[in-house]
Amino acid sequence: MSLILIADSGSSKTEWCLLDGAKKKKTLDTQGLSPYFLSGAQISEVLQNELFPKIKNFLPDEIHFYGTGCSNPNNVKIVRQALSSVFKGAKVSVDHDLMGAAKALCGNEKGIACILGTGANSCYFNGKKIMKNSPGLGFILGDEGSGAYLGKKVIQYYLYNTFDADLMDRFDAAFNTNSSEILENVYKKPLPNKYLANFAMFLAENRGHFMIENIIEDGFNDFFFNHIYKYRESWTMPINFAGSIAYGFRDVLKDLCNSYELQLGKVIKRPMDGLIKFHQQK
Predict the structure, then answer these.
(1) How far is CA 52 from CA 57, 85, 96, in A?
(2) Any bridge partners for residue 271, and if so which?
(3) Do β-strands 3-9 and 62-67 pair in parallel, antiparallel, or remain unpaired?
(4) Runs of H (alpha helix) within 110-259
(5) What angle do the packed helices 272-280 and 97-106 form, to 10 degrees?
(6) 243: which residues sit within 8 A by CB, 6+ positions away?
(7) Rounded CA gap, 140 and 148, in Å?
(8) For residue 220, which of 256, 195, 186, 193 has the smallest C-alpha distance?
(9) Are 150 and 245 in contact, with CB atoms under 8 Å apart?
(10) Reduced to 3 DSSP states, what percent helix, strand and coil does the chain have, rounded to the nearest 5?
(11) What torsion do the CA atoms of 197, 277, 19, 85 make, to the nearest 10 degrees?
C-alpha cells in the first residue's frame, strides 16, 4: 500500500496529512507555502526544516499538494520542483487550493465551492473539474469577505476613529498597538495579508455590537455580490464554504443565503477532512 501525503496550503499555514491506505499515519502543520510570497528556495527550506524531519521515517510515494497561488503554471512549477527536491522519487501533483476546497466540499457532485480564510476565492465545480472561477485579485484589490479584508476594515475603523469609545478601548486592550506600527506592518514588512487577517479575531470576540455586525455583513455581502452572484449555477446548486472565517461566521452566511434565497451547503473549517475522504476513495 502506497503512502500518500496530502497538503492544504493557505497564505498563513499548510496542513499536512500522511495516509497509509485507510489510516491517517500523521498530521501536522507548517507555515503557509504561497509561491507569491516565497521563492522556490524558501519553500524547499521550509519543507526541509519543518516537514521532512517529522515524516522522514514514512516517506510518501505520492504527494497531492493543493495551494494558494497554484492556478498559475509558473507557480505550480516552483512548488513541484521544491517538493521533488526534498521528496525524491515521489509522484508529485500540484493544484490550486480552490480545487482542494472543491473536492473537500463537493466530492464528485456539482456545486459552488468558496474559500473564506486569510484570503478568498470561489468557483463552480462540475464534480470533476472547475468550470468557472471568479477572478481572485488578492488582498489589495479583492479578497472580499476574507480575514484580510475584514481585518482591513477593523483597522480602518480604528485608525479613522470610527469605532465608538467602548470599541476603541477594547481594540487597544486586545492589540496594544498604534498607527505607526500598523502602517509599518502593512506597507513595509512581509506577509501583510496575514497581519491584516489577525485583526479579524476582533470581530469574533465582539459579536453583538452593531458596528461589528455591520463590518461582517458588509464584508460577506461584498463577496456575494462580486463573486457568488456571477455564477448562474448559484441559484440552483448548493453554496459551500471552507475556511476559518466562513466557519466562524457561518450564522451570517446562513442568514445571507436565506435572504437571497440561495441554498447553503456545507460550511467546514478545514478542507483536510474532506480531502482525506476524497483520496481514500481513489
Answers:
(1) 9, 11, 22
(2) none
(3) parallel
(4) 138-141, 147-159, 165-175, 179-187, 192-197, 201-205, 210-226, 244-248, 250-259
(5) 70
(6) 10, 101, 115, 116, 117, 269
(7) 9
(8) 256
(9) yes
(10) 50, 20, 30
(11) -50
59 in Cβ contact with 46 (< 8 Å): no
**Euclidean distance between CA atoms 235 and 261, whole angstroms:** 8
What is the per-residue pLDDT across 47-102, written as a single tens digit (0 to 9) for each?
999 998 888 888 889 999 999 888 889 999 999 999 999 998 899 999 998 999 99
Q: How many CB atoms lie within 10 A of CB 71?
A: 17
164 with 203: CB under 8 angstroms?
Answer: no
Stated pTM of the model: 0.83
Helix (H, G, I), strand (E, B) or coil at 92: strand
Collapsing DSSP states into helix, strand and coil, what is residue 131? strand
